[in-house]
Design goal:
27% of the residues lie in helices and 22% in strands. It is of the alpha+beta class and 463 residues long. The strands form five sheets. The chain has a seven-stranded antiparallel sheet with strand order 2-11-10-5-4-3-6, with no helix packed on it. Bound molecules: FE2/S2 (inorganic) cluster and fe (ii) ion. The site of FE2/S2 (inorganic) cluster has 10 residues, from loops.
């Protein structure tokens, strides 16, 4: 470590051995530039304060200064496909009614009756009018006032001022976002360059086929950060090291709001190559319980001089092309195999690539000590209409993710249990910490540094 520090500037050191550049150069298909080019910058090496995770005062500043000013992933199109469909999205004390409009657009209103303050809706549904269950004040789905019962007693109210207060709402690729405060970047500006990069992968509509969640005893940032680097795999997920380049992948940061990690399918640099040939690596991947739907009736043979990565890439292109009825011949090995995990500030994590995709969302539930962690699996929509998504299955306290292995797959469920096992102990540790500091790797943890750098911009006093 000392040697590297004396030779290289901070942030310039990389994992010895096979690099992402080596793997990208060996890919069997031309690599899109955004996958082959590094987008890293050194953002400092200062420790983070443990109070950022545990202090109610810090949490209150997030609630006041950050959350109202960011685009929050609130729902998916398939949650509310038809005009009049609505969902309730809640976070950090706010409640939003997100409503599909007659023209197909979405609008978001504060879900609070303007009479005496009852929440208008408590769960998703359909309505041609939004009527408060208490005394039946009612609003049109565009938020304008429809009617007031016993209107003779409300002569002091001006109809024009009785529209439901709204929030910004917009959508991208089936994801519906809300932002409480007006102004700031548009959704597409905020998400850049993610929409441009995902355009290569998500050309057909996707729909939710699995939705599983759990409330965790940890700060929302600590939970999210468990997924913002891959190099914990050596200690935490030993069962995937045969095919996880955990410390020798790529970490990219873009602007303020998006970062991205590639954990390539290759032997972990923490494993000795001796006795672990390419066929062995391919076999472990092929037989891993969570690795998609490759045709298992046909053996997977790495040809002489070939690599596990290229052989698996070829099989994946062929099997998934058949499964989806689309041509994936142009897809790189990377896009068929690797973990391509994006983080959108502050709490949304979509996975890229051509295969069925995951997305994660992390919300304080309801305070700095608890998080609602949601996992969705998206699949290509069959036909024109979006199938209704399954209801969110919430795991009980003490119930492991493998209890949902029937829908998540055994491999993913086991990995999630390992990750979650860490984060609750991280939070307990941060509360107990004597020196109140966390240290970050300059490259391996850059996405976490990037997140906190942006958070600080939102928390800073602005004129
Ligand atoms: S509180 Fe909603 S109508 Fe009275
Ligand atoms: Fe993990």
């Amino acid at each position: 470590m000392a040697d590297d520090r004396t030779v290289l500037p901070l942030g310039a050191a990389r994992c010895p051995g096979v690099s992402w550049d080596d793997l990208a150069a060996a890919d069997s298909r031309p690599m899109p530039e955004f996958l082959s080019t590094e987008s890293y910058r050194y953002l400092g090496s200062e420790p983070l304060s443990a109070d950022r995770y545990t202090d109610p005062g810090f949490f209150a500043r997030e609630v006041e200064r950050m959350w109202p000013n960011v685009w929050q992933y609130a729902a998916r199109d398939e949650d509310m496909p038809e005009p009049g469909d609505f969902i309730v999205y809640e976070n950090v004390g706010r409640s939003y009614l997100v409503v599909r409009q007659a023209d197909g657009s979405v609008r978001a209103f504060h879900n609070v009756c303007l009479h005496r303050g009852r929440k208008l809706k408590t769960e998703a549904g359909w309505a041609n009018r939004i009527t408060c269950p208490y005394h039946a004040f009612s609003w049109n789905t565009d938020g304008t006032l429809h009617s007031i019962p016993c209107a003779w007693d409300f002569g002091h109210l001006d109809r024009a001022q009785m529209s439901l207060p709204d929030a910004q709402a917009d959508s991208w690729a089936g994801y519906i976002f809300v932002k409480e405060n007006p102004g700031g970047p548009s959704l597409l500006e905020y998400l850049a360059p993610l929409p441009e990069q995902f355009a290569r992968w998500r050309q057909a509509p996707m729909t939710t086929t699995v939705h599983v969640a759990k409330v965790l005893n940890a700060n929302w940032k600590a939970v999210m950060e468990a997924f913002m680097e891959a190099w914990h795999s050596t200690a935490t997920h030993p069962q995937i090291l045969a095919f996880t380049g955990d410390a020798n992948g790529r970490n990219n940061i873009f602007g303020d709001h998006v970062n991205f990690g590639i954990a390539p399918v290759t032997l972990s640099p923490s494993l000795d190559r001796k006795g672990r040939d390419e066929q062995w690596q391919a076999d472990v991947y092929f037989n891993f319980a969570g690795r998609g739907r490759l045709n298992r009736d046909e053996p997977l043979i790495v040809p002489p001089g070939g690599t596990a990565r290229a052989t698996l890439g070829e099989r994946s292109r062929r099997d998934y092309s058949r499964l989806y009825g689309i041509d994936l011949d142009h897809a790189t090995d990377c896009e068929m195999l690797d973990s391509l995990f994006y983080s959108v500030f502050p709490n949304f994590g979509p996975w890229g690539g051509f295969k069925p995709n995951l997305d994660y969302r992390f919300r304080p539930w309801p305070d700095q000590d608890h998080t609602l962690f949601e996992v969705r699996i998206l699949s290509r929509a069959q036909g024109q209409a979006l199938d209704p998504p399954p209801p969110m299955r919430v795991l009980a306290q003490g119930e492991p993710w493998v209890a949902a292995a029937d829908v998540l797959g055994q491999g993913l469920a086991e990995v999630l249990d390992q990750d979650v096992g860490n984060v609750e102990q991280v939070h307990a540790g941060l509360r107990a910490s004597k020196n109140r500091r966390l240290q970050l790797g300059n490259y391996l943890d850059i996405r976490i540094r990037h997140f906190h750098t942006t958070l600080d911009k939102y928390l800073a006093d602005r004129p």
